[in-house]
Structures are given as C-alpha cells and as structure tokens.
Structure prediction request, 938 residues.
Amino acid sequence: MSAQNAKLPRWVDYGLIPLLNLTAALLVSGLVVLLIGENPLEAVYWLVQGSLGYSEGVGFTLYYTTNFIFTGLAVAVAAHAGMFNIGGEGQAYVGGLGVTLACLALDHYVPWYVTFPFALLGAVLFGAAWAAIPAYLQAKRGSHIVITTIMFNFISYSLMAYLLVEVFKQPGSMQPESRTFLEGGRLPFIHDVAGWFGIKMASSPLNLSFVVALLACVFVWALIWRTRLGYAIRTFGTNPDAAVYAGMNLSRIIIITMMISGGLAGLMALNEVMGAQNRLLLDYVTGYGFVGIAVALMGRSHPVGIIMASILFGMLYQGGAELAFEMPKITRDMIISIQGLVILFAGAMEHMFRPALVRIFTSRSDDLGQEA
Amino acid sequence: MRGGWNRREGLINGDFILHLDEQATARGGDGSGANGSGTGQSADVPAIRLVGIEKRFGPVFANRNIDLTVAKGSIHGIIGENGAGKSTLMSILYGFYQADSGDIYVNGKRQKIPDSQKAIAIGIGMVHQHFMLVENFSVLENVVLGVEGGALLGKGMDKARSELKRLAEEYDLRIDPEAIVEELPVGLQQRVEILKALYRGADILILDEPTGVLTPAEADHLFRILGQLRDQGKTILLITHKLREIMAITDRVSVMRRGEMVGSVHTAETSVEQLAEMMVGRHVLLNVEKTESKPGDEILSVEHLTVIDKRGVKRVKDVSFSVHAGEIVGIAGVSGNGQSELMEAVAGMITASNGTVRINGEAVDVTSKADALERRHRGMAHVPEDRHRTGLVTKFPARENMILGYQDQKKYGQGTFLDLGAILKETEEFMVDFDVRPPDPNLKAANFSGGNQQKLVLAREMERNPDILIVGQPTRGVDIGAIEFIHKRLIEMRDAGKAILLVSVELDEIRSLSDRILVMFDGTIVGERPAGASEQELGLMMAGIADTSGVADKAATPSADTVGAE
Prediction:
C-alpha cells in the first residue's frame, strides 16, 4: 500500500486538500503580483470584489460558471469510463448549431418556452453526434479517443466557420454570424425572471441555462451512481478486464458514454447562443471546453465538486476581468497565468500535499493486524 | 532449539496478534536459535544478520521488529502467508525499500543499503518472482546488461562469455549464451536470472517464490542447482509459501506472520504441520476430506476447442473434454500452457477460433462473440484466475463487486435504476455465509486481505447456485486458513450435485480436490488420470510426456533437460 492510496477522512480529501492547493496557487500568484510591483492583497481584493462583491458581478460569475459546469460534467462522464474527452470544445461549438436551427425555425411562431425543449434537444443531439464519431472509431477501430477528439475540435472550427460564412450570414452583413433571434428564441435572463416576482436584480447575461446546468448535475450524479448504465461505465472505466468478465458490451459503453459526454458539452451552447448572445457567433466557445478538463479534475469528476470548481473558475474569469480593469499593470495575460497556476496546483499537482497529510492523519491512529 | 519453539507455542495457538512483550520473547528465541547454528562464533560470522528491522506503509506494519540470522553456506527458507511481510523484508535487504529502523549486517559488517546497486556491490543477488529480463536479447546480452564494462561491447562480451562457461561448469548451469531469452522455457529463463546474479559476484542469493512457474521436475533441477551453490559456499535465501519445498531443500527455516518473525527452526527438527501452524497461528487441516464422487448428467462439454490469441499464437489446440454433475474435473499444468485461454474461452471472455461448447446439452456460440453474460444466464459461474485483474473492481466497495456479472438481474432493480437496498442486503447475507471479514459491504474490495477478496468472488459466484462452476487458481495468494474453507465449500458444492471445472497450477490442490485430472501442456490435453495419480506421473505429463507407463523414479530428472533443449 502506498501513500497515494492510503485512506484519509473524507473532509480532508474533499475539503482540506483542494483548499490547500488553491491557497498554494494564490500564494504563488501573489509572488508574481509582487514581482511586478503591485500589492497582492489589493489584487485579491479586486478579484473577490469583482466577482462576488456586487449583484452584477455575481451574475457574470454565475454565467461563466454555467459554461464550466456543462463542459466539466462532459469531461467527468467520459472520465468515469476511463476516457479522456478533449473534444468538449468542438462538441459545444457544434451543439450551437442545434440550438440555432431550433431557434431560427421557431422564434417567429412560438414563445421561448416552446422553443426551449427543441433547442435543448438540438444542443444535446448535435453535441452527442459530434462525439459519436470519435467514439465509434475508438470502439470499432481502436483509434485513440484523445487524438480523434482533438482532431474533431479542428474540424468543428472549420465546419462552423464555413456554415457561418456561407449559410447563416445575413445578406449585406460583414459579420459571420446568424441573425439575432426574436423573443421566441431567447431564454429569459435571471434578472428578468426575478423581476416577474418583483425582485430587483442588476442585469447580467445569467439566464435560465444556469438552472439547466444544476439539473444536469443531478442527472449526472444519478446516472453514474444510481443506474445500471452508470455501474457499467464505472466498471469499464476502473477495470476494463472486469467489464469483459461481467459480460458488458464495451463498444456500446464507449459509444453511449461519449454521446452523453458530447451532449453535456453541447448544452453549453444553450447558455451562450440562446441565453446570452441570442445568435450564433464565430468562436463563442473560446476555451470553455478545455477549462472543463481542469474543472473536472479539480472537482474529482463529482457533480458537487464540479459545481464548486466551476464557481471558482467563474470567479477567476469575472474577477480577473475586473482586476485587469482596476489594476492596469496586471494585464489580461497575467490573469490567464493565475488561472494556469490554479489548474497546475489543483490538477497536475493535486497529490503534492497528500503524503504529508497522510502522515499527519495516520500517525494518530495506529491500527495493527491489517494486511500489508 | 526445540525448546525455543515450544516456549512460543502458547502464544501462537489461537492468538492472532502478537503483543509487544511477547514480541520480545520471540526475539529472544530467535537469537538463541542463531547461536545454536553458529557454534564457533569468530570463525562463523553469519552471512546476514538483521536486527530490529521495521517498515511501515502508512498505518500498517509490513515488518515489525524483525531479527534474522542466516548462516554462511546454508539454504535458509523464509516462509509465511501472503502479506506476512516476506517480500518487504527481502526488498529491504536488496535496497528496494529503506527500513524505518533497524540494522543490517552482511558478513559481520554493518551496511546501509540505499539501492540495489549497493546490494550487488556487497554481494547480494536477487532472482525475482517475475523475471527481469529483456526478452528479445540473448542470454549473454542479458547477463552483461548494466555491467558491460565500457562503451564498446566487444571486450566485455568476451569476458562474459568465458565467465559464463566457468559458471556453467562449476554449478551445472548449462545454457547456450547466444540463445534468445524469449525462446527459452521458463526454467531456463530462471537460470539466466541466477547467472546474472552470479556474474555480478553474488555470494548471497535471494530467490523469491522461484518454483511458481516451474514443473515439479524443473523445480527438482533448480533445487539441485541450489544445493551445488550451497556446497560451493554460497548462501541462499529462499522465499516461498510452499511448505514442501522448505522441507526438501532448506537447512533452517524462519516463519513470518503478520509482519513479525514468529520463529526460526532447524528444518530437520520440524514438520509440515508444525510450520503450517506457526504460519497461521492455529492448527490447520492440510488434507481435504471427501467421499467418492457420484457423477451424474453431462453439464459441460467442450469439443475440438481451439483458441488463437491476438498475436496469432495458438494457445489452445483442439481440446475436448466434459464435466458431469457431481464431479470436480481438475486441469493441471504449468502456468502458461493454455489453461487460462481455455477457461476464458469457455467462460465467454474471449472468442475461440473453432470448436463447440455445450452447457446442459445446448450449444453456445463461442466463435463469433464472447459473451460472459449469456454463459451466466445458462447457469455457468466463473471464478477467474486473477481476482485483481478480472474478478473484482478493487476500487469499488464490496456491495458493488457483489453484482459484477449479475448486474442485469431483476432483483437488483427494475429498469434503469439499481436497487441499492437490495444489493446491500444481499451482500450482507453473502458475506456472513462465506465468513468474509470484516463483514462490511461498504469497504473497498482493495482493503480486504487476499483470502477475503477471494471469498467475496467465490460468494458472488457460488451463491447463484450455478449448474457448472469454473474456478481458476481458487487459492492463489490466499492464506492457509482460507484455503481450508474454500476447499471445503468446493467439495460441498460438488456433493450437492454441481459440476466443477478446476484449473490450478498447484498440483497439490488439483490432486486433493479433483475426481478426474486432465493435464495440459502446450495447448493440448496430454492425458487424463484418476484422482489417485502420483505427483511424479502428473509431473511428467506437465512436461509434455504423455506415455507414463514406466514411471521410473529417476525419470523426472532428464525430462527437465528435454524441455530445456527445445
């Protein structure tokens, strides 16, 4: 038994360790801020103030959080089956196509709540379809999913650029984007919803997709830990030989899991396309798919962890923008490097503090008679 | 020495955990044993002396206060159940692990052994259970690997070639230096490992479970080599869990249990029963009691089964046999002769390229798809050879492992969702029935001991009341106490009129459980023998010799060379 596998209390594993990692990342970031001659405490203040300090900031933070939840869940579901889905970027991009088609087709005729289920279905189906091809290649041809999903990201960029320029662009417009949807193709903003109940909130792009994201978390939790399919996914992911022994159909697991993963990534388009922008834009995914990998890592592929990690990254996005505005010496690139440090400490070096903690927590409880 | 053993007997009986004060007694006894063997103390410095070695992994003591004295020019056995700490202790001696505390003396000099380089430098060589050879290199290249003696190979190779020749003559370790290792049978590969150690100037040789992959005849040959090495003044440490090997070859034997040294005895003054008792801490029944079998209908029939693996190698060649209700059919053979593939093809884990399998008279599709679930629906249960690799998902709790392979059954939930309550309840029942300890359905499978893990698998498969049970290596890595239990349950199942196909590389196990014995060699069934067949006869068959009509007592020896020559 190595220190890696030694048992720690749950609160240490899921609370203390992420907290320590985050603190370490912030300390190193603080050093960087010091190096350029700024006050790190002030930077932290603006980061927190900008993301949580006022109503509009909170709205923006949660709007980013929504994107991260979807892409994080997508990576997590695939990870439970032992697969590394790097294609969230492309799946989310293509998912937007499904949303757009539903909105363009229906927004003239019906209110948003009729369009909504179709848009949702469109996002899921298109995202799933985009993941299904690499999944099929993996299941039947043994092409590695990491390679194919990366390649499918690039294919999606080209495909969507082509469609935007050649199909969706409005005549006479120079912008490669679809027409703006009418009311019937727009998800209500949360501040509007609050307004219906007489609560006043500052306006922000936060929309009903946030609720969809939370429901998706419940869905993933139930799928992974409560269903037969989830059991098969986890068995295949942890021990593929045992899955063969149990008579599970591996090709089927690979394809279905990847389609669920792709569908979740596709849902991100609901937030961006139907919620925030109300039109299909070029390159609206801008890295959310990749950050989803860090989110899933940090959240230990558990929905609750993913929500927490998503909020953290939402804060970094929103608070980082404020920080760059308030302290001009801290540029946008610096913010990205701080995000990078968080990913480094929370993801790549997540076991750094573990051996020390194992020593602290096991020296107290000497129990003999266990097998080595 | 006899007295020393008796003194400790009281605490060994029925007491599983040694306490510190008793530990001190054990240490005292050990020390006196050491004095007994080395009479002239100045002349006979022990080759190895370990004092108070301790090693912890997290909260678990792998080695606790270990004292050990190994006399020069002797074969010293170290015996203990799985997880007793034998391998950890040897890893400390060979520099893989560092002891947390304690001293190592080699030839009377205190040594720190931070890595295996240092171990080699002070004359300790190790032959691992899993060979550390570059398979597509020649014997010579493997021997000089790491000690080439310069940037250019030529000179070092010439030196190695002549040195190999000398070693071969001196110790009867004949081998063709130009042969490619992967083309050699395992017995000879092991010889390369021994040569590697000797070439590096080893005076003390550690062998970790060396006979696990050998036929009885090959094992005999190994023992003769070890005897010669001892006669030439080498010191040999033999780690094993096979009591009979200890009795056959060692001068002294030290017994470990639960990370502690229980005692050291002269081999000549002890018995298999006594050693088993020391290992387990209580009296053990080594022989299985069973009545004559009453075979019924044919449950499983295998005809002309051929299995070709991914690399295109024929693993199972045109094998036919049948298993009837109420009998145990054992398949003996040295590991790697097609038994695993045979089992996996019959159980639906891999496809066969040819052949027919019938369960209860109905043909199963074995060639176009491998479907383990379908076999289970037809009343077959399967305890796989390797519980870690296939039989369990060790990261899952016991309750989730209890439905592995039966996850589609209605009683675990209608439709999409699993009925966690039903699974938990059944797991609790199974665990009580098979005496799994601790009976905690939420404990991860990895945290059970080997024996209890195996009981989990057996409970899962046997509680389904299958018509035919396929069992591979049912007691591999399982402690003696659990072996007794598992054997009893298998016999009970047979007596209840079930068919059992048993595959094991432990010849003792095959002989004591089986009603009929099939011997596999190189993918074919060499022959069938009744339950009473002698070990020698089966041993010959395991080496591929079908005609055992004139089993002479000396016949076992040349057979090893025959195998080697191929």
Summary: The domain at 39-328 of chain A is CATH 1.10.3470 (ABC transporter involved in vitamin B12 uptake, BtuC). The radius of gyration of chain A is 22 Å. The CA atoms of residues 107 and 184 of chain A lie 4 Å apart. Chain A touches chain B through 34 residues (CB under 8 Å).
